[in-house]
Amino acid sequence: MSPQSDETAPIGVIGGSGLYALLDGKSAEKITVETPYGPTSSEVTVGRFAGRSVAFLPRHGTGHTVAPHLINYRANVWALASLGVKAIVTSSAVGGLNPALPSGTFVLPDQILDRTHGRADTYFDGTLLADGGVQHVALAEPYCPELRRFAAASLSVAGEPFVARGTTVVIQGPRFSTRAESHWFRSAGADIVNMTQYPEVSLAAELNVGLVNLSFVTDNDAGDESLPDQVRPETLSAQLVLDRMAAARPRLLAMISAIVAGIPDGYTPRQLVPPEAVAAVLGAAPKLR
Fold first, then answer.
1. Known catalytic residues?
2. Where do the structural domains in the chain lie, given as residue ranges?
3. How many Å apart are CA 247 and CA 250, to the nearest integer?
4. d(CA 104, CA 231)
5. DSSP H stretches of helix in the chain
6. pLDDT tens-digit series, residues 34-55
7. Domain 11-288: which CATH class?
8. Which of 69, 194, 218, 249 would give a disulfide with 94, using CB separation of 3.0 to 4.6 Å?
9. Is pLDDT above 50 for 3?
Protein backbone atom coordinates (compact mmCIF):
# COMPACT_ATOMS: atom_id res chain seq x y z
CA MET A 1 0.00 0.00 0.00
CA SER A 2 1.11 3.56 -0.57
CA PRO A 3 2.11 5.87 2.30
CA GLN A 4 -0.93 8.01 1.44
CA SER A 5 -3.41 5.21 2.23
CA ASP A 6 -6.12 6.01 4.75
CA GLU A 7 -7.05 2.35 5.34
CA THR A 8 -8.89 1.85 8.62
CA ALA A 9 -10.74 -0.98 10.32
CA PRO A 10 -12.97 -0.75 13.41
CA ILE A 11 -12.35 -4.36 14.47
CA GLY A 12 -9.03 -6.13 14.95
CA VAL A 13 -8.35 -9.84 15.28
CA ILE A 14 -5.15 -11.17 16.83
CA GLY A 15 -4.64 -14.82 15.97
CA GLY A 16 -2.95 -17.08 18.46
CA SER A 17 -1.27 -20.46 17.98
CA GLY A 18 -2.72 -22.20 14.95
CA LEU A 19 -4.38 -19.10 13.49
CA TYR A 20 -1.96 -17.41 11.12
CA ALA A 21 -4.35 -16.33 8.34
CA LEU A 22 -7.94 -15.13 8.43
CA LEU A 23 -8.78 -13.03 5.39
CA ASP A 24 -9.18 -13.94 1.74
CA GLY A 25 -5.96 -12.96 0.04
CA LYS A 26 -7.78 -11.86 -3.12
CA SER A 27 -9.71 -9.14 -1.35
CA ALA A 28 -7.31 -8.28 1.49
CA GLU A 29 -4.32 -5.96 1.62
CA LYS A 30 -1.15 -6.42 3.64
CA ILE A 31 0.14 -3.36 5.45
CA THR A 32 3.47 -2.82 7.16
CA VAL A 33 2.88 -0.45 10.06
CA GLU A 34 5.97 1.22 11.45
CA THR A 35 5.53 1.81 15.18
CA PRO A 36 7.54 3.75 17.78
CA TYR A 37 8.15 0.41 19.51
CA GLY A 38 9.67 -1.49 16.60
CA PRO A 39 8.24 -4.07 14.22
CA THR A 40 5.00 -5.96 14.68
CA SER A 41 4.89 -9.77 14.66
CA SER A 42 3.98 -9.63 10.97
CA GLU A 43 2.27 -7.43 8.44
CA VAL A 44 -1.29 -6.42 9.25
CA THR A 45 -3.87 -7.75 6.78
CA VAL A 46 -6.95 -5.58 6.23
CA GLY A 47 -10.05 -6.90 4.50
CA ARG A 48 -13.60 -8.15 4.93
CA PHE A 49 -14.53 -10.85 7.42
CA ALA A 50 -17.99 -11.74 8.76
CA GLY A 51 -19.34 -8.77 6.86
CA ARG A 52 -17.06 -6.31 8.66
CA SER A 53 -13.87 -4.41 7.90
CA VAL A 54 -11.21 -6.21 9.93
CA ALA A 55 -7.48 -5.83 10.57
CA PHE A 56 -5.80 -9.20 11.26
CA LEU A 57 -2.44 -9.82 12.92
CA PRO A 58 -0.98 -13.24 13.84
CA ARG A 59 0.51 -12.90 17.31
CA HIS A 60 3.39 -15.34 16.71
CA GLY A 61 4.04 -14.31 13.10
CA THR A 62 2.82 -16.12 10.00
CA GLY A 63 4.99 -19.17 10.67
CA HIS A 64 4.84 -19.27 14.47
CA THR A 65 8.37 -17.85 14.63
CA VAL A 66 8.00 -15.47 17.60
CA ALA A 67 8.17 -16.99 21.09
CA PRO A 68 5.66 -15.76 23.71
CA HIS A 69 8.21 -13.82 25.78
CA LEU A 70 9.65 -12.14 22.65
CA ILE A 71 6.39 -10.90 21.11
CA ASN A 72 6.39 -7.13 20.63
CA TYR A 73 3.01 -6.65 22.30
CA ARG A 74 3.25 -2.87 22.37
CA ALA A 75 3.92 -2.69 18.63
CA ASN A 76 1.12 -5.12 17.79
CA VAL A 77 -1.57 -3.31 19.78
CA TRP A 78 -0.32 0.15 18.77
CA ALA A 79 -0.44 -0.84 15.09
CA LEU A 80 -4.07 -1.95 15.33
CA ALA A 81 -5.12 1.12 17.30
CA SER A 82 -3.38 3.39 14.79
CA LEU A 83 -5.48 1.81 12.02
CA GLY A 84 -8.66 2.85 13.80
CA VAL A 85 -9.40 -0.42 15.60
CA LYS A 86 -11.76 0.07 18.57
CA ALA A 87 -12.46 -3.60 19.39
CA ILE A 88 -9.98 -6.48 19.33
CA VAL A 89 -10.95 -10.16 19.28
CA THR A 90 -8.07 -12.46 20.22
CA SER A 91 -7.66 -16.22 20.16
CA SER A 92 -5.48 -18.32 22.45
CA ALA A 93 -4.47 -21.91 22.99
CA VAL A 94 -4.63 -22.64 26.72
CA GLY A 95 -4.06 -25.45 29.16
CA GLY A 96 -6.92 -26.50 31.40
CA LEU A 97 -6.42 -26.26 35.18
CA ASN A 98 -10.06 -26.56 36.24
CA PRO A 99 -11.33 -30.18 35.92
CA ALA A 100 -14.59 -28.72 34.60
CA LEU A 101 -12.74 -27.41 31.53
CA PRO A 102 -11.42 -30.49 29.67
CA SER A 103 -9.58 -30.42 26.36
CA GLY A 104 -11.82 -29.18 23.58
CA THR A 105 -13.56 -26.51 25.69
CA PHE A 106 -13.90 -22.91 24.51
CA VAL A 107 -13.72 -20.21 27.21
CA LEU A 108 -14.37 -16.46 27.31
CA PRO A 109 -12.04 -15.52 30.20
CA ASP A 110 -12.91 -12.56 32.40
CA GLN A 111 -9.89 -12.38 34.73
CA ILE A 112 -6.10 -12.68 34.65
CA LEU A 113 -3.33 -13.64 37.05
CA ASP A 114 -0.05 -12.23 35.71
CA ARG A 115 3.05 -14.38 36.33
CA THR A 116 5.19 -12.92 33.53
CA HIS A 117 8.34 -10.85 34.03
CA GLY A 118 10.46 -8.45 32.02
CA ARG A 119 7.84 -7.69 29.39
CA ALA A 120 7.28 -4.11 28.23
CA ASP A 121 3.72 -3.79 29.51
CA THR A 122 2.83 -0.08 29.39
CA TYR A 123 2.89 2.82 26.95
CA PHE A 124 3.26 5.32 29.78
CA ASP A 125 6.84 4.73 30.86
CA GLY A 126 8.60 7.84 29.57
CA THR A 127 10.21 6.13 26.55
CA LEU A 128 8.58 8.54 24.10
CA LEU A 129 9.19 12.28 24.03
CA ALA A 130 5.47 12.93 24.50
CA ASP A 131 3.87 9.78 25.89
CA GLY A 132 0.88 11.11 27.81
CA GLY A 133 2.54 11.22 31.22
CA VAL A 134 2.06 8.73 34.05
CA GLN A 135 -1.23 6.84 33.79
CA HIS A 136 -2.61 4.25 36.22
CA VAL A 137 -5.14 2.18 34.33
CA ALA A 138 -7.93 0.60 36.40
CA LEU A 139 -7.99 -3.06 35.40
CA ALA A 140 -10.43 -4.71 37.79
CA GLU A 141 -12.18 -5.96 34.64
CA PRO A 142 -9.26 -6.62 32.27
CA TYR A 143 -11.42 -7.79 29.36
CA CYS A 144 -14.06 -5.37 28.14
CA PRO A 145 -17.30 -6.46 29.90
CA GLU A 146 -19.45 -5.13 27.06
CA LEU A 147 -17.49 -7.02 24.39
CA ARG A 148 -17.71 -10.17 26.50
CA ARG A 149 -21.49 -9.77 26.66
CA PHE A 150 -21.70 -9.28 22.90
CA ALA A 151 -19.48 -12.33 22.35
CA ALA A 152 -21.49 -14.54 24.71
CA ALA A 153 -24.77 -13.48 23.11
CA SER A 154 -23.45 -14.10 19.59
CA LEU A 155 -22.07 -17.54 20.44
CA SER A 156 -25.28 -18.51 22.19
CA VAL A 157 -27.36 -17.57 19.14
CA ALA A 158 -24.91 -19.43 16.90
CA GLY A 159 -25.33 -22.51 19.08
CA GLU A 160 -21.61 -22.79 19.83
CA PRO A 161 -20.84 -24.40 23.22
CA PHE A 162 -18.53 -22.33 25.42
CA VAL A 163 -17.87 -21.37 29.04
CA ALA A 164 -18.74 -17.73 29.69
CA ARG A 165 -16.04 -16.88 32.23
CA GLY A 166 -12.74 -18.04 33.67
CA THR A 167 -9.45 -16.86 35.13
CA THR A 168 -6.31 -17.12 33.00
CA VAL A 169 -2.91 -17.37 34.66
CA VAL A 170 -0.35 -16.01 32.20
CA ILE A 171 3.11 -17.56 32.50
CA GLN A 172 6.34 -16.37 30.95
CA GLY A 173 6.97 -19.26 28.57
CA PRO A 174 8.16 -20.61 26.30
CA ARG A 175 8.38 -23.62 28.63
CA PHE A 176 5.28 -25.28 30.04
CA SER A 177 4.49 -25.44 33.78
CA THR A 178 5.98 -27.84 36.28
CA ARG A 179 3.45 -29.99 38.10
CA ALA A 180 4.05 -27.99 41.28
CA GLU A 181 3.37 -24.74 39.43
CA SER A 182 0.24 -26.19 37.86
CA HIS A 183 -1.01 -27.20 41.32
CA TRP A 184 -0.13 -23.73 42.66
CA PHE A 185 -2.02 -21.97 39.87
CA ARG A 186 -5.03 -24.20 40.42
CA SER A 187 -5.03 -23.53 44.16
CA ALA A 188 -4.86 -19.78 43.44
CA GLY A 189 -8.11 -20.00 41.51
CA ALA A 190 -6.85 -20.09 37.92
CA ASP A 191 -8.98 -22.04 35.45
CA ILE A 192 -6.70 -21.97 32.40
CA VAL A 193 -3.03 -21.25 31.72
CA ASN A 194 -1.58 -19.31 28.78
CA MET A 195 1.62 -17.48 27.78
CA THR A 196 0.36 -14.45 25.82
CA GLN A 197 -2.84 -12.87 27.15
CA TYR A 198 -0.78 -10.44 29.24
CA PRO A 199 0.28 -7.71 28.52
CA GLU A 200 -1.86 -7.73 25.38
CA VAL A 201 -5.09 -7.07 27.27
CA SER A 202 -3.72 -4.28 29.48
CA LEU A 203 -2.03 -2.52 26.57
CA ALA A 204 -5.33 -2.43 24.69
CA ALA A 205 -6.97 -0.96 27.80
CA GLU A 206 -4.28 1.74 27.95
CA LEU A 207 -5.22 2.84 24.42
CA ASN A 208 -8.97 2.74 25.22
CA VAL A 209 -9.43 -0.20 22.87
CA GLY A 210 -11.83 -2.95 23.94
CA LEU A 211 -10.57 -6.54 23.92
CA VAL A 212 -12.26 -9.92 24.26
CA ASN A 213 -10.46 -13.26 24.21
CA LEU A 214 -11.60 -16.65 22.97
CA SER A 215 -9.52 -19.43 24.52
CA PHE A 216 -9.43 -23.06 23.42
CA VAL A 217 -8.33 -25.70 25.94
CA THR A 218 -5.85 -28.01 24.22
CA ASP A 219 -4.54 -29.99 27.21
CA ASN A 220 -4.63 -30.32 31.00
CA ASP A 221 -1.29 -28.56 31.54
CA ALA A 222 0.94 -30.63 33.84
CA GLY A 223 -2.08 -32.43 35.24
CA ASP A 224 -2.69 -33.45 38.84
CA GLU A 225 -2.33 -37.08 39.83
CA SER A 226 -4.62 -36.56 42.82
CA LEU A 227 -7.55 -35.68 40.54
CA PRO A 228 -9.77 -38.00 38.48
CA ASP A 229 -8.38 -39.85 35.48
CA GLN A 230 -9.57 -37.30 32.93
CA VAL A 231 -7.27 -34.59 34.32
CA ARG A 232 -4.26 -36.73 35.12
CA PRO A 233 -1.05 -35.83 33.25
CA GLU A 234 -0.95 -36.41 29.52
CA THR A 235 2.10 -36.13 27.32
CA LEU A 236 2.07 -32.37 26.74
CA SER A 237 4.12 -30.91 23.88
CA ALA A 238 4.03 -27.93 21.55
CA GLN A 239 3.10 -30.29 18.72
CA LEU A 240 0.12 -31.60 20.69
CA VAL A 241 -1.12 -28.04 21.16
CA LEU A 242 -0.69 -27.18 17.47
CA ASP A 243 -2.33 -30.43 16.33
CA ARG A 244 -5.37 -29.84 18.51
CA MET A 245 -5.64 -26.22 17.42
CA ALA A 246 -5.50 -27.36 13.78
CA ALA A 247 -8.30 -29.85 14.40
CA ALA A 248 -10.38 -27.14 16.10
CA ARG A 249 -9.74 -24.52 13.40
CA PRO A 250 -13.18 -24.78 11.70
CA ARG A 251 -14.95 -24.26 15.04
CA LEU A 252 -12.54 -21.50 16.02
CA LEU A 253 -13.14 -19.60 12.77
CA ALA A 254 -16.90 -20.00 13.12
CA MET A 255 -16.81 -18.64 16.65
CA ILE A 256 -14.57 -15.69 15.78
CA SER A 257 -16.87 -14.93 12.84
CA ALA A 258 -19.89 -14.93 15.15
CA ILE A 259 -18.16 -12.66 17.66
CA VAL A 260 -17.00 -10.19 14.99
CA ALA A 261 -20.42 -10.07 13.36
CA GLY A 262 -22.06 -9.48 16.75
CA ILE A 263 -20.10 -6.35 17.65
CA PRO A 264 -22.48 -3.41 17.04
CA ASP A 265 -21.46 -0.70 14.59
CA GLY A 266 -21.86 1.85 17.37
CA TYR A 267 -19.64 0.07 19.89
CA THR A 268 -17.71 2.57 22.00
CA PRO A 269 -14.89 1.17 24.15
CA ARG A 270 -14.33 2.12 27.77
CA GLN A 271 -12.35 5.31 28.38
CA LEU A 272 -9.88 4.07 31.00
CA VAL A 273 -7.19 6.61 30.11
CA PRO A 274 -7.70 10.31 29.26
CA PRO A 275 -8.16 10.60 25.47
CA GLU A 276 -5.44 13.22 25.24
CA ALA A 277 -2.95 10.79 26.81
CA VAL A 278 -3.92 8.12 24.29
CA ALA A 279 -3.58 10.63 21.46
CA ALA A 280 -0.09 11.46 22.67
CA VAL A 281 0.91 7.79 22.47
CA LEU A 282 -0.60 7.22 19.06
CA GLY A 283 0.92 10.45 17.82
CA ALA A 284 1.02 10.89 14.08
CA ALA A 285 -0.77 8.61 11.61
CA PRO A 286 0.94 5.25 11.05
CA LYS A 287 3.62 5.05 8.40
CA LEU A 288 2.59 2.60 5.68
CA ARG A 289 4.64 1.11 2.92
1. 219, 221
2. 11-288
3. 8
4. 13
5. 73-82, 145-158, 179-187, 197-206, 238-261, 275-282
6. 999 999 999 999 999 999 999 9
7. alpha beta
8. 194
9. no
